[in-house]
Amino acid sequence: GSWTESNAAEIREAVQMMRDIGVNIIVSLSFEVDLLPLLSSAEDEGLLADNFVWIIIEGSGSAANLGTNPEATRLMAGMLSFEANPVPAFGFQRLFRLWGSLRPAGCT
After folding, report:
1. Using one digit for the tens of pLDDT, what is the confidence trace for 60-90?
2. Confidence of residue 26 (pLDDT cuts 50, 70, 90)
3. Distance from first CA to last CA of the chain, Å, rounded?
4. Whole-prediction pTM value?
5. How far apart, in whole angstroms, are the C-alpha atoms of residue 3 and residue 19?
6. By C-alpha distance, which of 11, 77, 20 is closest to 41?
7. How far apart are CA 26 and CA 55, in angstroms?
8. Are 60 and 30 in contact (CB under 8 A)?
């Protein structure tokens, strides 16, 4: 599913669509601001049960940013998370700056 950044109603509709079509492996790439509303909606719809697999990629669930939030920690328990480390390599530093400058309108 997809939604407009920070639009909780669209997030809920996307989660309900995933539930209705029977998705049980979910790969999430979302803006950080949308991760908690997404996971809360998923919990409400039963998509965080043991028979679902969640993979959070590229900073959506950055431990550095969400790790101190008890609700995020609870909702993300048992999920896989993959994130590039932008510090050691020049290429990652360039990507990190570019990625940080993008907004939904620029992602077409």
Report:
1. 655 555 667 888 888 888 888 777 665 666 6
2. very high
3. 16
4. 0.71
5. 16
6. 11
7. 6
8. yes
Q: The dihedral of CA 55, 73, 77, 63: what is its sign? A: positive
| Sequence-separated (6 or more) residues with CB below 8 Å from residue 11 | 3, 34, 37, 38, 41
Secondary structure letter of residue 89 according to DSSP = -
61 vs 91: CA distance, rounded Å: 22
The CA distance from 43 to 93, in Å, is 35
Q: With bands split at pLDDT 50, 70 and 90, how would you rate the model's confidence at 17?
A: very high
Give strand pairing partners of 69. Answer: none
How many CA within 13 A on the CB side of residue 87? 1
Which residues have CB under 8 Å from 48's CB, separation 6+?
39, 42, 54, 75
User: What are the tokens at 58?
Assistant: 């590229």
